[in-house]
Amino acid sequence: MAFKWSYFGSVLKGPKETLKEISGSYLGPTIEVNTGDKVRIIFKNDLPEESIIHWHGLDVSHKNDGHPHNAIKTNESYQYDFVVENRAGMYWYHPHPHGRTGFQVYQGLAGIFIVRDQEEKNLNLPNEEQELSLVLQDRYFNDDGQLEYRPSMMGTFGNKLFINGTDKRKIKVKQGLYRIRLLNGCNARIFNIAVDGVQEIKQIGSDGGLLAEVNSLERFYFAPAERFEFLFDFSQYSTGDIIRVESLPLVEGRGKKYTILEFEVSEDLGVMFREPSKLSQYSKINPSEATNLNSPKEFELIPKRGTGWTINGNGYEDNRYENYEIIKYGDTEVWEFYNPTGMPHPMHIHGTQFQVLNRSSGQLKGCLDQGWKDTVLVMPGDRVQVIKRFNTFKGTFIYHCHNLEHEDMSMMRNFKIID
Ligand code: C2O
Ligand code: CU
Ligand code: CU
Hints:
By secondary structure, the chain is mainly beta.
C-alpha cells in the first residue's frame, strides 16, 4: 500500500501495554491509559513539514492540546505532559497544523486513544477479544494504485474503505456478546449506518464515553471524528453467518448503499457477558446553569467569498478573537450552530465535552446527540444548540468543522478562556 506516513511509538517508561500496534496497519499504535494517569509523550517530527499532535476529545491545557500555533518543524521535538481527566471512552490522536491537517491525516497519521476507569470496569462489559475498536477511513487510489489526495470544497473522498488502517474488512467473531467501538476517521465522509437485518442497534457510548443506559437505534448518521459504541450479540447467529454493517444513502433514494464491514461468526463460543441494565452515572447539564440560555451564541456556517469556508464570516487567524469568542473561566454557555448551506458540517470544540441541548432538524433526522460529545453533526438546515462548561483550563483553544478540508480551508476559529 502506498501509505507514506505513520506514527511510530515506543514506551519509554511505564506499562508495556500502554501502546499496542495494530498489525499490518498504517495507523499509529493504540494508546491505552486510565483516568488519573500522568502521561508524558515526546513527539518527534520526522516529516518533511511542520506538524503537531492533537489528542482529540481529551481535556488538556493549551500547551498539551496540539494548537496549530504550536506546530514544530522537521527534526524538532515537542513534549506533552498531562493528567488524564477524561472518563473512560474512545478518543483519538491526529495532526493539527493549520492548512495541512487534512493532508497529513490522509497520509496515514492517526491513532486510537483509549481511556479506562473504575466505573467502567465495574460494569464488566465484554472485554479482551470481545471488545473491538474500529477506525473507519476512506482513501482514493488512482488507476496505477497510487494514493491520491484530491481536496475540494466538499472535502476529500475515497474509492476504497479501510478498517483500522488495513483493507481487511471481514472480521471473525465468536458466538458471544461484543462491545464494538467505531471511530469515523475519514476526512470528509459521512456514513448512514445500519446493520443488515437488525432493527435495534444497542448504543452504549458516544464521543465522551458511556451513556446512562442503552439507546436503541435503527440507523444513524456518523460523521468524521464522532465515536459510537454498541453491544452486539453474535450468539444468536450460527457458524458461518455474515453480519453486514452498511451505509445507506445519506438521503433516501439518492445513491446506493454499500458495505462498510462484515462480521463472520465462527464456531467458537465466546466468554459469557451480560448486557448491564444501567451503564454510567452522569448528570445532564442543567440549562439554567448557562449564563446565556436566552441568548445563545450563534455560529453560522457559511462559505467564504471565492473558495473556502467560514464561521460567522470569519476564517482562521492566529491570535484573533471576536468578542463572543472570549469566555469567562468557570462559565457554562450555550452555543448554537446554524447551517444554512447544502452541506453537512461536523462541528468540533476543543476542551471539555459538551451536551446537545436541542436540534431543530431539517429533513434529515438521526444524528448522534446522546451523551457527552465533542463533535456534533450539523445537517443542512439544522440549528443545533450545545451546552458546554468552560471550567477546566484557561487559555486559547480552537473550534472547527471536522470535515478536514473545511478545517484547512479556514473553517476554524480560536476561543479564549480568561479570568
Ligand atoms: Cu480532531 Cu481540532 O480536532
Ligand atoms: Cu479535537
Ligand atoms: Cu464543514
